[in-house]
Amino acid sequence: MVVDLTERYPCHLKVVNKRRSKHGDFKKFSDGRLQITINNDLNPYRFLLTLIHEFAHLVTFEEYRKVRPHGQEWKYNFKLLMLPFLKPNIFPNEILSQLALYLINPKASSDGDVKLSAALRNYDAIGNKTLIFEIPDQAEFKFQNRTFIKGKKRRTRYECIEVMTHKKYTFHPHAEVDPLNKNYE
């Protein structure tokens, strides 16, 4: 099915080194070339989901040229492209059930859906990172070589204070952090 997509919608498909800010992207260059990039560190399920997400951008671009990146046109195309992949022989049941719910009204990133993100994370290579929602409030943690104190959850994100500057930052619940004291009760 993926090969069929690449034949119907030709573009330069490139697997790239991990980027912190995104799993993949779609670009149209000034010379007319189209390119999809996908991070090389994704588990197979997140890779496929990201690939179809980016193909939905390409299809939407081909059909409409100028629309909002994650607007109704993209959501429609994303759902349409994902439907053939919603099968238990492609995705494990724990991902499939969350993916079906997510596709009712997909967000700009699969990480925006906490339950889907958690289901996908179960298939990631084992790392030594901890997710911010797993540490208690007021715990200190490191993120990008800076020290923070975890604060309360505000709607969808955690409000944290950087120790050095006392500035407030918000973190997605699935942000990977390094707790400074792992002996929590």
Describe the structure.
- The protein is an alpha+beta fold and 185 residues long.
- The chain contains five helices and nine strands.
- Helix 2 crosses helix 3.
- It is globular.
- 24% of the residues are buried.
- The mean pLDDT is 91.
Q: Quick gist of this model?
A:
31% of the residues lie in helices and 24% in strands.
List keywords for this structure.
185 residues, alpha+beta, Zincin-like, SH3 type barrels, 2 domains, six-stranded antiparallel sheet, 5 helices, 9 strands, 24% strand, globular
The separation of the N and C termini measures: 48 Å
Provide the residue-averaged pLDDT: 91
Strand % is 15-25%
Compute the number of strand runs: 9
CATH class bucket of the largest domain: Alpha Beta
Helix and strand run = HEEEHHHHEEEEEE
Give the SSE layout.
Blueprint: H1 2-8, E1 12-16, E2 24-28, E3 34-39, H2 44-64, H3 72-82, H4 93-102, H5 114-121, E4 130-131, E5 140-143, E6 146-154, E7 157-162, E8 168-171, E9 176-179
Parallel strand pairs: 1-3
Antiparallel strand pairs: 2-3, 4-9, 5-6, 5-9, 6-7, 7-8
